[in-house]
Amino acid sequence: MDPRDDLPLVLVVDDELRSQEAMRRTLDEDFRVLTAGDTDIARQLISRHEVAVVLCDQRMPGQTGIEFLKEVRERWPEVVRIVISGYADSEDIIAGVNEAGIYQYVLKPWVPEHLLQTVQGAVEASQLHRGLQRLELDLRAGPQALRARRQTRLREAKAVFDFDRIVRAEGSPLDGVCATAQRLARYDLSVLILGESGTGKELLARAMHYASPRQNGPFVVENCGAIPDTLLESELFGHRRGAFTGAVEDHTGLFQRADGGTVFLDEIGETSPAFQVKLLRVLQEGEIRPVGSARAVPVDVRVIAATHRQLEDEVRAGRFREDLYYRLAGATLQVPPLRERPGDILPVAESLLDAVARELGREPAEFDDDARAVMVGYPWPGNIRELRNEISRALALGDGPLLRATDFSRKLLGGQTGAAHAQRTSQLTGGTGLALPGSGTLQERLDAIEAMVLREVMLRLRWNKTHAAKELGLSRVGLRAKLQRFGLETK
Ligand SMILES: Nc1ncnc2c1ncn2[C@@H]1O[C@H](COP(=O)(O)OP(=O)(O)OP(=O)(O)O)[C@@H](O)[C@H]1O
Protein backbone atom coordinates (compact mmCIF):
# COMPACT_ATOMS: atom_id res chain seq x y z
CA MET A 1 0.00 0.00 0.00
CA ASP A 2 1.09 3.56 -0.65
CA PRO A 3 1.62 4.97 2.84
CA ARG A 4 -0.20 8.17 1.79
CA ASP A 5 -3.26 6.14 1.15
CA ASP A 6 -3.94 5.91 4.85
CA LEU A 7 -3.97 9.68 5.27
CA PRO A 8 -7.34 11.28 5.95
CA LEU A 9 -8.95 13.00 2.98
CA VAL A 10 -9.58 16.75 3.18
CA LEU A 11 -11.60 18.62 0.57
CA VAL A 12 -10.88 22.30 -0.06
CA VAL A 13 -13.70 24.21 -1.77
CA ASP A 14 -12.66 27.63 -3.03
CA ASP A 15 -13.19 29.32 -6.36
CA GLU A 16 -9.81 31.04 -6.16
CA LEU A 17 -7.05 28.86 -7.43
CA ARG A 18 -4.44 30.70 -5.40
CA SER A 19 -6.26 30.08 -2.10
CA GLN A 20 -6.80 26.43 -3.07
CA GLU A 21 -3.10 26.03 -3.69
CA ALA A 22 -2.09 27.82 -0.47
CA MET A 23 -4.31 25.46 1.54
CA ARG A 24 -3.07 22.45 -0.34
CA ARG A 25 0.53 23.40 0.43
CA THR A 26 -0.29 23.82 4.13
CA LEU A 27 -2.18 20.54 4.46
CA ASP A 28 -0.50 18.32 1.93
CA GLU A 29 2.07 16.80 4.23
CA ASP A 30 -0.42 15.46 6.77
CA PHE A 31 -3.46 14.82 4.62
CA ARG A 32 -4.54 13.86 1.15
CA VAL A 33 -6.06 17.02 -0.27
CA LEU A 34 -8.76 17.25 -2.94
CA THR A 35 -9.77 20.63 -4.32
CA ALA A 36 -12.95 21.90 -5.94
CA GLY A 37 -13.52 25.25 -7.60
CA ASP A 38 -17.29 25.13 -7.15
CA THR A 39 -19.87 23.38 -5.05
CA ASP A 40 -21.08 21.08 -7.87
CA ILE A 41 -17.65 19.56 -8.13
CA ALA A 42 -17.39 19.43 -4.36
CA ARG A 43 -20.64 17.41 -4.22
CA GLN A 44 -19.31 14.94 -6.77
CA LEU A 45 -16.09 14.51 -4.87
CA ILE A 46 -17.82 13.94 -1.54
CA SER A 47 -20.11 11.36 -3.05
CA ARG A 48 -17.19 9.46 -4.58
CA HIS A 49 -14.55 9.64 -1.89
CA GLU A 50 -14.43 9.10 1.81
CA VAL A 51 -13.89 12.75 2.70
CA ALA A 52 -13.17 13.35 6.40
CA VAL A 53 -13.24 17.14 6.44
CA VAL A 54 -14.47 19.81 4.06
CA LEU A 55 -13.10 23.36 4.18
CA CYS A 56 -15.29 25.76 2.28
CA ASP A 57 -14.82 29.43 1.50
CA GLN A 58 -17.87 31.51 2.46
CA ARG A 59 -17.85 33.49 -0.78
CA MET A 60 -18.63 31.05 -3.53
CA PRO A 61 -20.42 31.82 -6.79
CA GLY A 62 -24.07 30.79 -6.69
CA GLN A 63 -24.21 29.63 -3.10
CA THR A 64 -22.59 30.73 0.16
CA GLY A 65 -20.21 28.40 1.94
CA ILE A 66 -22.65 28.09 4.85
CA GLU A 67 -25.51 27.13 2.53
CA PHE A 68 -23.37 24.46 0.98
CA LEU A 69 -22.19 23.17 4.36
CA LYS A 70 -25.81 22.91 5.56
CA GLU A 71 -26.45 20.63 2.63
CA VAL A 72 -23.33 18.65 3.44
CA ARG A 73 -24.59 18.20 7.00
CA GLU A 74 -27.86 16.77 5.74
CA ARG A 75 -26.44 14.48 3.08
CA TRP A 76 -23.13 13.46 4.61
CA PRO A 77 -23.36 14.10 8.36
CA GLU A 78 -20.09 12.25 8.98
CA VAL A 79 -18.10 14.86 7.03
CA VAL A 80 -16.77 17.50 9.44
CA ARG A 81 -17.32 21.04 8.19
CA ILE A 82 -15.11 24.12 8.40
CA VAL A 83 -15.93 27.50 6.87
CA ILE A 84 -13.34 30.09 5.87
CA SER A 85 -14.32 33.73 5.75
CA GLY A 86 -13.15 37.33 5.77
CA TYR A 87 -14.16 39.73 8.58
CA ALA A 88 -16.89 41.23 6.46
CA ASP A 89 -18.75 37.91 6.29
CA SER A 90 -18.65 37.06 9.95
CA GLU A 91 -22.17 38.34 10.77
CA ASP A 92 -23.82 35.97 8.26
CA ILE A 93 -21.70 33.15 9.42
CA ILE A 94 -22.53 33.40 13.07
CA ALA A 95 -26.20 33.08 12.18
CA GLY A 96 -25.54 29.98 10.09
CA VAL A 97 -22.98 28.22 12.23
CA ASN A 98 -25.46 26.22 14.25
CA GLU A 99 -27.64 25.23 11.37
CA ALA A 100 -24.73 23.98 9.35
CA GLY A 101 -23.18 22.36 12.42
CA ILE A 102 -19.87 24.02 11.68
CA TYR A 103 -16.92 22.55 13.52
CA GLN A 104 -14.98 25.82 13.28
CA TYR A 105 -14.81 28.94 11.23
CA VAL A 106 -11.45 30.20 10.20
CA LEU A 107 -10.87 33.88 9.63
CA LYS A 108 -8.85 35.21 6.73
CA PRO A 109 -5.98 35.79 6.46
CA TRP A 110 -5.36 32.44 8.07
CA VAL A 111 -2.06 31.35 9.59
CA PRO A 112 -0.82 28.03 8.22
CA GLU A 113 -0.02 26.55 11.63
CA HIS A 114 -3.47 27.39 12.98
CA LEU A 115 -5.19 26.05 9.93
CA LEU A 116 -3.26 22.82 10.25
CA GLN A 117 -4.22 22.47 13.93
CA THR A 118 -7.87 23.16 13.17
CA VAL A 119 -7.95 20.53 10.44
CA GLN A 120 -6.19 18.02 12.68
CA GLY A 121 -8.87 18.58 15.35
CA ALA A 122 -11.60 18.21 12.72
CA VAL A 123 -10.12 14.96 11.44
CA GLU A 124 -10.10 13.54 14.95
CA ALA A 125 -13.76 14.52 15.33
CA SER A 126 -14.53 12.81 12.02
CA GLN A 127 -12.72 9.63 13.06
CA LEU A 128 -14.69 9.56 16.28
CA HIS A 129 -17.93 10.00 14.40
CA ARG A 130 -17.10 7.26 11.89
CA GLY A 131 -15.92 4.95 14.67
CA LEU A 132 -19.25 5.35 16.43
CA GLN A 133 -21.16 4.81 13.22
CA ARG A 134 -19.24 1.60 12.50
CA LEU A 135 -19.78 0.39 16.02
CA GLU A 136 -23.49 0.97 15.72
CA LEU A 137 -23.65 -0.87 12.39
CA ASP A 138 -21.60 -3.76 13.76
CA LEU A 139 -23.85 -4.06 16.77
CA ARG A 140 -26.91 -4.11 14.58
CA ALA A 141 -25.49 -6.63 12.11
CA GLY A 142 -24.31 -9.09 14.73
CA PRO A 143 -20.94 -10.86 14.68
CA GLN A 144 -21.89 -13.64 12.27
CA ALA A 145 -23.26 -11.35 9.59
CA LEU A 146 -20.15 -9.25 9.95
CA ARG A 147 -17.80 -12.16 9.57
CA ALA A 148 -19.69 -13.39 6.51
CA ARG A 149 -19.55 -9.97 4.92
CA ARG A 150 -15.82 -9.72 5.50
CA GLN A 151 -15.21 -13.18 4.04
CA THR A 152 -17.22 -12.48 0.92
CA ARG A 153 -15.26 -9.32 0.35
CA LEU A 154 -12.02 -11.20 0.76
CA ARG A 155 -13.07 -13.97 -1.64
CA GLU A 156 -14.13 -11.45 -4.24
CA ALA A 157 -10.86 -9.58 -3.92
CA LYS A 158 -8.90 -12.81 -4.35
CA ALA A 159 -10.99 -13.95 -7.28
CA VAL A 160 -10.32 -10.79 -9.21
CA PHE A 161 -6.75 -10.40 -10.31
CA ASP A 162 -3.43 -11.22 -9.02
CA PHE A 163 0.14 -11.44 -10.27
CA ASP A 164 -0.01 -15.18 -9.58
CA ARG A 165 -2.59 -15.47 -12.33
CA ILE A 166 0.01 -14.41 -14.87
CA VAL A 167 1.13 -17.88 -15.81
CA ARG A 168 4.87 -18.41 -16.25
CA ALA A 169 7.58 -20.99 -15.67
CA GLU A 170 9.78 -20.93 -12.64
CA GLY A 171 12.61 -18.48 -13.25
CA SER A 172 10.84 -16.93 -16.24
CA PRO A 173 12.04 -13.50 -17.44
CA LEU A 174 8.50 -12.44 -16.58
CA ASP A 175 9.26 -12.90 -12.87
CA GLY A 176 11.35 -9.75 -12.85
CA VAL A 177 8.73 -7.82 -14.81
CA CYS A 178 5.99 -8.93 -12.40
CA ALA A 179 8.11 -8.12 -9.34
CA THR A 180 8.77 -4.59 -10.64
CA ALA A 181 5.12 -4.15 -11.59
CA GLN A 182 4.04 -5.27 -8.13
CA ARG A 183 6.36 -2.74 -6.50
CA LEU A 184 5.19 0.04 -8.83
CA ALA A 185 1.54 -0.83 -8.25
CA ARG A 186 1.61 0.78 -4.81
CA TYR A 187 2.53 4.20 -6.09
CA ASP A 188 0.29 6.50 -8.02
CA LEU A 189 2.76 6.72 -10.86
CA SER A 190 1.96 6.59 -14.58
CA VAL A 191 3.34 3.41 -16.05
CA LEU A 192 4.11 2.64 -19.67
CA ILE A 193 4.04 -1.03 -20.68
CA LEU A 194 5.91 -1.95 -23.83
CA GLY A 195 5.67 -5.26 -25.60
CA GLU A 196 4.50 -6.94 -28.76
CA SER A 197 0.84 -7.56 -29.35
CA GLY A 198 -0.63 -10.38 -27.30
CA THR A 199 2.19 -10.59 -24.75
CA GLY A 200 -0.04 -9.88 -21.75
CA LYS A 201 0.30 -6.12 -21.30
CA GLU A 202 -3.34 -5.69 -20.34
CA LEU A 203 -3.15 -8.60 -17.94
CA LEU A 204 -0.19 -6.94 -16.26
CA ALA A 205 -1.99 -3.60 -16.07
CA ARG A 206 -4.99 -5.28 -14.44
CA ALA A 207 -2.84 -7.05 -11.90
CA MET A 208 -1.24 -3.69 -11.07
CA HIS A 209 -4.62 -2.09 -10.57
CA TYR A 210 -5.80 -4.82 -8.21
CA ALA A 211 -2.54 -4.61 -6.26
CA SER A 212 -2.79 -0.83 -5.95
CA PRO A 213 -4.51 1.38 -3.41
CA ARG A 214 -7.09 2.02 -6.13
CA GLN A 215 -8.20 -1.63 -6.18
CA ASN A 216 -11.70 -0.77 -5.01
CA GLY A 217 -12.11 1.73 -7.82
CA PRO A 218 -12.86 0.87 -11.46
CA PHE A 219 -10.35 -0.43 -14.04
CA VAL A 220 -11.33 0.81 -17.49
CA VAL A 221 -9.73 -0.03 -20.80
CA GLU A 222 -9.59 1.96 -24.00
CA ASN A 223 -7.94 0.71 -27.15
CA CYS A 224 -6.69 3.97 -28.61
CA GLY A 225 -5.68 2.32 -31.88
CA ALA A 226 -9.12 1.08 -32.72
CA ILE A 227 -11.14 4.27 -33.14
CA PRO A 228 -10.85 7.59 -34.95
CA ASP A 229 -9.57 10.64 -33.12
CA THR A 230 -12.77 12.54 -32.52
CA LEU A 231 -14.56 9.48 -31.24
CA LEU A 232 -11.64 8.65 -28.99
CA GLU A 233 -11.82 12.06 -27.39
CA SER A 234 -15.50 11.73 -26.71
CA GLU A 235 -15.05 8.15 -25.44
CA LEU A 236 -12.40 9.22 -22.97
CA PHE A 237 -13.53 12.65 -21.90
CA GLY A 238 -17.27 12.50 -22.63
CA HIS A 239 -19.43 14.95 -24.55
CA ARG A 240 -22.39 17.22 -24.04
CA ARG A 241 -25.62 16.81 -25.90
CA GLY A 242 -25.44 18.57 -29.26
CA ALA A 243 -21.64 18.80 -29.23
CA PHE A 244 -21.61 17.20 -32.67
CA THR A 245 -24.01 15.56 -35.06
CA GLY A 246 -25.27 12.41 -33.43
CA ALA A 247 -24.56 13.55 -29.87
CA VAL A 248 -28.18 13.21 -28.82
CA GLU A 249 -27.50 13.08 -25.13
CA ASP A 250 -24.77 13.80 -22.59
CA HIS A 251 -22.15 11.10 -22.44
CA THR A 252 -19.88 10.50 -19.48
CA GLY A 253 -16.34 9.71 -20.58
CA LEU A 254 -14.18 6.84 -19.39
CA PHE A 255 -11.94 9.12 -17.35
CA GLN A 256 -14.89 10.25 -15.29
CA ARG A 257 -16.18 6.72 -14.93
CA ALA A 258 -12.76 5.60 -13.76
CA ASP A 259 -12.62 8.25 -11.05
CA GLY A 260 -10.78 6.79 -8.09
CA GLY A 261 -9.47 3.93 -10.26
CA THR A 262 -7.20 3.20 -13.20
CA VAL A 263 -7.48 3.93 -16.93
CA PHE A 264 -5.61 1.55 -19.21
CA LEU A 265 -4.82 3.22 -22.55
CA ASP A 266 -3.82 0.47 -24.94
CA GLU A 267 -2.01 1.22 -28.21
CA ILE A 268 -1.20 4.76 -27.13
CA GLY A 269 1.43 4.91 -29.90
CA GLU A 270 -1.33 4.99 -32.51
CA THR A 271 -2.83 8.31 -31.39
CA SER A 272 -2.65 11.48 -33.47
CA PRO A 273 -0.64 14.58 -32.47
CA ALA A 274 -3.90 16.51 -31.92
CA PHE A 275 -5.18 13.91 -29.48
CA GLN A 276 -1.80 13.72 -27.74
CA VAL A 277 -2.02 17.45 -26.91
CA LYS A 278 -5.45 16.95 -25.34
CA LEU A 279 -4.40 13.96 -23.32
CA LEU A 280 -1.33 15.80 -22.08
CA ARG A 281 -3.48 18.66 -20.84
CA VAL A 282 -5.77 16.27 -18.98
CA LEU A 283 -2.84 14.58 -17.30
CA GLN A 284 -1.21 17.87 -16.37
CA GLU A 285 -4.33 19.47 -14.98
CA GLY A 286 -6.05 16.46 -13.49
CA GLU A 287 -9.33 17.49 -15.07
CA ILE A 288 -11.25 16.72 -18.22
CA ARG A 289 -13.40 18.91 -20.37
CA PRO A 290 -16.16 16.97 -22.11
CA VAL A 291 -16.48 17.78 -25.83
CA GLY A 292 -18.85 20.75 -26.16
CA SER A 293 -18.64 21.70 -22.51
CA ALA A 294 -17.05 24.83 -21.10
CA ARG A 295 -16.67 23.31 -17.65
CA ALA A 296 -13.74 21.26 -16.53
CA VAL A 297 -14.39 18.29 -14.26
CA PRO A 298 -11.65 17.13 -11.91
CA VAL A 299 -10.78 13.48 -12.22
CA ASP A 300 -8.65 11.32 -10.02
CA VAL A 301 -7.29 8.47 -12.15
CA ARG A 302 -4.08 6.60 -12.55
CA VAL A 303 -3.06 6.06 -16.15
CA ILE A 304 -1.32 2.94 -17.37
CA ALA A 305 -0.54 3.11 -21.07
CA ALA A 306 0.70 0.41 -23.41
CA THR A 307 2.01 0.11 -26.92
CA HIS A 308 3.59 -2.47 -29.21
CA ARG A 309 5.87 0.26 -30.56
CA GLN A 310 9.18 1.35 -29.11
CA LEU A 311 7.77 4.68 -28.05
CA GLU A 312 11.16 6.32 -27.58
CA ASP A 313 11.86 5.72 -31.27
CA GLU A 314 8.50 7.29 -32.11
CA VAL A 315 9.49 10.33 -30.04
CA ARG A 316 12.83 10.57 -31.84
CA ALA A 317 11.06 10.33 -35.18
CA GLY A 318 8.74 13.18 -34.14
CA ARG A 319 5.61 11.01 -34.25
CA PHE A 320 4.95 11.03 -30.52
CA ARG A 321 5.12 14.08 -28.24
CA GLU A 322 8.10 13.99 -25.96
CA ASP A 323 6.31 15.80 -23.11
CA LEU A 324 3.46 13.28 -23.20
CA TYR A 325 5.94 10.44 -23.32
CA TYR A 326 7.55 11.62 -20.09
CA ARG A 327 4.13 12.09 -18.47
CA LEU A 328 3.14 8.53 -19.33
CA ALA A 329 6.45 6.87 -18.68
CA GLY A 330 6.78 7.54 -14.95
CA ALA A 331 8.12 4.01 -15.09
CA THR A 332 8.44 1.64 -18.02
CA LEU A 333 7.90 -2.11 -18.11
CA GLN A 334 8.92 -4.26 -21.03
CA VAL A 335 7.04 -7.52 -21.50
CA PRO A 336 9.22 -9.93 -23.49
CA PRO A 337 7.69 -11.78 -26.42
CA LEU A 338 6.91 -15.45 -25.93
CA ARG A 339 9.77 -16.63 -28.16
CA GLU A 340 12.22 -15.04 -25.73
CA ARG A 341 10.81 -17.02 -22.83
CA PRO A 342 10.36 -20.47 -24.33
CA GLY A 343 10.12 -21.97 -20.87
CA ASP A 344 6.77 -20.18 -20.47
CA ILE A 345 5.22 -21.68 -23.59
CA LEU A 346 4.09 -24.98 -22.11
CA PRO A 347 2.88 -23.76 -18.71
CA VAL A 348 0.86 -21.05 -20.47
CA ALA A 349 -0.39 -23.51 -23.10
CA GLU A 350 -1.52 -25.91 -20.40
CA SER A 351 -3.36 -23.28 -18.47
CA LEU A 352 -4.98 -22.04 -21.68
CA LEU A 353 -5.94 -25.59 -22.62
CA ASP A 354 -7.79 -26.00 -19.33
CA ALA A 355 -9.49 -22.64 -19.72
CA VAL A 356 -10.48 -23.19 -23.35
CA ALA A 357 -11.75 -26.74 -22.66
CA ARG A 358 -13.94 -25.33 -19.89
CA GLU A 359 -15.20 -22.56 -22.17
CA LEU A 360 -16.05 -25.05 -24.93
CA GLY A 361 -17.68 -27.40 -22.44
CA ARG A 362 -15.13 -30.11 -23.32
CA GLU A 363 -13.49 -32.76 -21.17
CA PRO A 364 -10.08 -31.75 -19.78
CA ALA A 365 -7.51 -32.36 -22.53
CA GLU A 366 -3.76 -32.89 -22.83
CA PHE A 367 -1.06 -32.33 -25.42
CA ASP A 368 0.96 -35.24 -26.77
CA ASP A 369 4.77 -35.00 -26.97
CA ASP A 370 4.87 -33.86 -30.58
CA ALA A 371 2.31 -31.17 -29.93
CA ARG A 372 4.41 -29.91 -27.04
CA ALA A 373 7.56 -29.89 -29.15
CA VAL A 374 5.83 -28.04 -31.96
CA MET A 375 4.59 -25.36 -29.58
CA VAL A 376 8.00 -24.86 -28.00
CA GLY A 377 9.72 -24.54 -31.34
CA TYR A 378 7.33 -22.10 -32.97
CA PRO A 379 8.27 -18.42 -32.59
CA TRP A 380 4.70 -17.20 -31.85
CA PRO A 381 4.76 -13.80 -33.58
CA GLY A 382 1.24 -13.21 -32.21
CA ASN A 383 2.38 -14.30 -28.76
CA ILE A 384 -0.08 -15.62 -26.21
CA ARG A 385 -3.11 -14.49 -28.14
CA GLU A 386 -1.95 -16.58 -31.10
CA LEU A 387 -1.22 -19.51 -28.79
CA ARG A 388 -4.71 -19.28 -27.38
CA ASN A 389 -6.23 -19.20 -30.86
CA GLU A 390 -4.24 -22.24 -31.94
CA ILE A 391 -5.33 -24.16 -28.86
CA SER A 392 -8.99 -23.23 -29.34
CA ARG A 393 -8.80 -24.29 -32.96
CA ALA A 394 -7.02 -27.55 -32.21
CA LEU A 395 -9.46 -28.39 -29.45
CA ALA A 396 -12.48 -27.56 -31.56
CA LEU A 397 -11.23 -29.55 -34.58
CA GLY A 398 -9.46 -32.40 -32.75
CA ASP A 399 -11.42 -35.54 -31.98
CA GLY A 400 -10.36 -36.53 -28.48
CA PRO A 401 -8.89 -35.42 -25.22
CA LEU A 402 -5.35 -35.78 -26.60
CA LEU A 403 -4.18 -32.88 -28.74
CA ARG A 404 -1.66 -33.85 -31.40
CA ALA A 405 0.79 -31.76 -33.41
CA THR A 406 -1.33 -32.36 -36.50
CA ASP A 407 -4.29 -30.65 -34.84
CA PHE A 408 -2.41 -27.36 -35.11
CA SER A 409 -2.44 -25.20 -38.21
CA ARG A 410 0.17 -25.84 -40.89
CA LYS A 411 2.26 -22.80 -40.15
CA LEU A 412 3.27 -24.41 -36.85
CA LEU A 413 4.12 -27.76 -38.33
CA GLY A 414 6.51 -26.51 -40.98
CA GLY A 415 8.80 -25.17 -38.28
CA GLN A 416 8.45 -21.97 -40.26
CA THR A 417 8.94 -18.72 -38.57
CA GLY A 418 6.01 -16.31 -38.72
CA ALA A 419 6.51 -13.74 -41.47
CA ALA A 420 6.50 -10.84 -39.05
CA HIS A 421 9.11 -12.52 -36.93
CA ALA A 422 11.33 -13.37 -39.84
CA GLN A 423 11.11 -9.81 -41.03
CA ARG A 424 12.01 -8.43 -37.64
CA THR A 425 14.99 -10.63 -37.05
CA SER A 426 15.87 -11.09 -40.71
CA GLN A 427 18.64 -13.46 -39.75
CA LEU A 428 18.07 -17.12 -40.17
CA THR A 429 20.36 -19.72 -38.77
CA GLY A 430 22.04 -21.60 -41.60
CA GLY A 431 19.58 -23.98 -43.15
CA THR A 432 17.72 -24.98 -40.01
CA GLY A 433 14.80 -22.65 -40.54
CA LEU A 434 15.19 -21.33 -37.01
CA ALA A 435 14.94 -17.63 -36.40
CA LEU A 436 17.30 -15.86 -34.05
CA PRO A 437 15.42 -14.16 -31.25
CA GLY A 438 15.53 -10.42 -31.83
CA SER A 439 15.79 -9.10 -28.30
CA GLY A 440 16.30 -10.07 -24.67
CA THR A 441 19.46 -10.69 -22.70
CA LEU A 442 22.11 -12.94 -24.17
CA GLN A 443 21.02 -15.75 -21.84
CA GLU A 444 17.37 -15.40 -22.85
CA ARG A 445 18.29 -15.52 -26.52
CA LEU A 446 20.53 -18.52 -26.02
CA ASP A 447 17.72 -20.30 -24.13
CA ALA A 448 15.34 -19.61 -26.98
CA ILE A 449 17.79 -21.02 -29.49
CA GLU A 450 18.52 -24.05 -27.32
CA ALA A 451 14.82 -24.86 -27.07
CA MET A 452 14.40 -24.60 -30.82
CA VAL A 453 17.37 -26.84 -31.56
CA LEU A 454 16.19 -29.47 -29.08
CA ARG A 455 12.76 -29.47 -30.56
CA GLU A 456 14.07 -29.77 -34.10
CA VAL A 457 16.36 -32.68 -33.26
CA MET A 458 13.75 -34.54 -31.20
CA LEU A 459 11.16 -34.26 -33.94
CA ARG A 460 13.61 -35.35 -36.64
CA LEU A 461 14.84 -38.32 -34.62
CA ARG A 462 11.29 -39.27 -33.60
CA TRP A 463 12.02 -38.86 -29.87
CA ASN A 464 14.88 -41.34 -29.85
CA LYS A 465 16.84 -39.96 -26.91
CA THR A 466 19.91 -42.14 -27.42
CA HIS A 467 20.36 -40.85 -30.98
CA ALA A 468 19.52 -37.29 -30.00
CA ALA A 469 21.95 -37.31 -27.08
CA LYS A 470 24.66 -38.65 -29.40
CA GLU A 471 24.01 -36.06 -32.06
CA LEU A 472 24.00 -33.24 -29.53
CA GLY A 473 27.06 -34.48 -27.64
CA LEU A 474 25.10 -34.94 -24.42
CA SER A 475 24.62 -37.79 -22.01
CA ARG A 476 21.07 -39.19 -21.85
CA VAL A 477 20.71 -37.72 -18.39
CA GLY A 478 21.94 -34.35 -19.64
CA LEU A 479 19.50 -34.47 -22.54
CA ARG A 480 16.59 -35.35 -20.27
CA ALA A 481 17.46 -32.47 -17.96
CA LYS A 482 17.40 -30.08 -20.88
CA LEU A 483 14.12 -31.47 -22.22
CA GLN A 484 12.60 -31.06 -18.79
CA ARG A 485 13.93 -27.55 -18.45
CA PHE A 486 12.08 -26.48 -21.57
CA GLY A 487 9.00 -28.50 -20.73
CA LEU A 488 9.60 -30.91 -23.62
CA GLU A 489 9.46 -33.82 -21.26
CA THR A 490 7.64 -34.03 -17.97
CA LYS A 491 9.50 -35.19 -14.85
N1 LIG B 1 1.03 -15.18 -18.78
C1 LIG B 1 -0.22 -15.40 -19.21
N2 LIG B 1 -0.90 -16.43 -18.73
C2 LIG B 1 -2.13 -16.70 -19.18
N3 LIG B 1 -2.77 -15.99 -20.10
C3 LIG B 1 -2.14 -14.94 -20.61
C4 LIG B 1 -0.83 -14.58 -20.18
N4 LIG B 1 -0.45 -13.48 -20.86
C5 LIG B 1 -1.47 -13.17 -21.67
N5 LIG B 1 -2.48 -14.03 -21.53
C6 LIG B 1 -3.74 -14.02 -22.29
O1 LIG B 1 -3.39 -13.71 -23.63
C7 LIG B 1 -4.32 -12.82 -24.22
C8 LIG B 1 -3.61 -11.56 -24.66
O2 LIG B 1 -3.15 -10.85 -23.51
P1 LIG B 1 -3.29 -9.26 -23.36
O3 LIG B 1 -4.57 -8.78 -23.98
O4 LIG B 1 -3.03 -8.90 -21.97
O5 LIG B 1 -2.07 -8.85 -24.29
P2 LIG B 1 -1.67 -7.39 -24.80
O6 LIG B 1 -0.19 -7.37 -24.80
O7 LIG B 1 -2.38 -6.35 -24.01
O8 LIG B 1 -2.17 -7.44 -26.27
P3 LIG B 1 -2.56 -6.21 -27.26
O9 LIG B 1 -1.43 -5.24 -27.20
O10 LIG B 1 -2.69 -6.87 -28.58
O11 LIG B 1 -3.84 -5.69 -26.74
C9 LIG B 1 -5.38 -12.60 -23.17
O12 LIG B 1 -6.40 -13.54 -23.39
C10 LIG B 1 -4.67 -12.89 -21.88
O13 LIG B 1 -5.56 -13.29 -20.86
Can you describe what's shown?
GO terms for molecular function: ATP binding; sequence-specific DNA binding. The chain is of the alpha/beta class. The chain has three domains: 128 residues, Response regulator (Rossmann fold); 173 residues, Rossmann fold (3-Layer(aba) Sandwich), CATH 3.40.50.300; 147 residues, Helicase, Ruva Protein, domain 3, CATH 1.10.8.60. The strands form four sheets. Strands 2-1-3-4-5 form a five-stranded parallel beta sheet, with helices on both faces. The chain has a five-stranded parallel beta sheet with strand order 7-8-11-6-12. A two-stranded antiparallel ribbon has the order 9-10. Helix 6 runs parallel beside helix 7 and helix 13 crosses helix 15. About 4% of the residues have low confidence. Bound molecules: adenosine-5'-triphosphate. Adenosine-5'-triphosphate binds next to helix 7, helix 13 and helix 15.
Structural topology:
Layout: E1 9-13, H1 17-27, E2 32-36, H2 39-48, E3 51-57, H3 65-75, E4 80-85, H4 90-100, E5 104-107, H5 112-160, H6 173-185, E6 191-194, H7 201-210, E7 219-223, H8 229-237, H9 254-257, E8 262-266, H10 273-285, E9 287-288, E10 297-298, E11 302-307, H11 311-316, H12 322-328, E12 331-334, H13 342-359, E13 366-367, H14 369-377, H15 383-397, E14 402-403, H16 410-413, H17 419-425, H18 442-460, H19 465-472, H20 476-485
Parallel strand pairs: 1-2, 1-3, 3-4, 4-5, 6-11, 6-12, 7-8, 8-11, 13-14
Antiparallel strand pairs: 9-10
Helix pairs in contact: 3-4, 6-7, 13-14, 13-15, 14-18, 19-20
Modified residues (4-aspartylphosphate): 57
Protein name: Sigma-54-dependent Fis family transcriptional regulator
Pfam families: AAA_lid_14 (PF25601), HTH_8 (PF02954), Response_reg (PF00072), Sigma54_activat (PF00158)
